[in-house]
Amino acid sequence: MYLIISTDKNSCFSVARAKSKIEKIVTVKKPFKQTELLLKNISSLIDFKKVKGIIVNQGPGEFSALRIGISTANALAFALSLPIVGICLKVELEATEKEKIELLWQSGKSKITKVKSSKIILPYYDKEPNITVKK
Fold it and tell me: Which tens digits make up the pLDDT trace of 40-72?
């Protein structure tokens, strides 16, 4: 089983599990709640002992949302000694969460089987972070 994580927006996130195809997608539409709810939803979706690899949305997307999803994916891959791949989705933020998960699975399923060990995935922001207000 593979874990798929997509957190490119602050307003919602999605996690999914897949084997030969996507089996289940969970989308949480609670703004700015990735920190509190991401791992909880992953835990309820999968059995960590059965996970063979992680596919994560690498961006582009919103700064904090990407950092939370990618750092969670990296931590799980490291802790569980799993292969991980990051996929840059060149889609609009308006694409549905289901569409993003499907694109991540289609792009990542062939790559994840070629990865031998865990590596660090870095976010792709597509622009400079804008996290402060100019004075």
Answer: 999 999 999 999 999 999 988 888 899 999 999
